[in-house]
Amino acid sequence: MEISKNEFGVYQGQTVLQYNLINDHGMRLSVMNYGATLNRIEVPDRHGERASIVLGYDQFDHYLNQDAYFGATVGRVAGRIAKGSFSIDGHDYQLPLNNGENTNHGGPQSFESQIWNSWVFINDDHIGVKFDLLSPDGTNGFPGNLKATVTYSLNNENQWRLHYEATTDKPTLFNPTNHVYFNLSGDFTKKIEDHILTINSHQFGEIRQDGLPTGELIDVHGTPFDFTHGAPIKKGIYSDYPQNKLVDGYDHPFLLDMNEKPSAVLEDPTSGRRVTMTTTNNAVVVYTGNGFSSDMTMVGKPMQPHQGVTLEAQMMPDAIHHQGFGNIILRPGKKYQADTVYHFDDANDIQCK
Question: In the record, which residues are listed under signal peptide (predicted)?
Answer without folding.
Answer: none
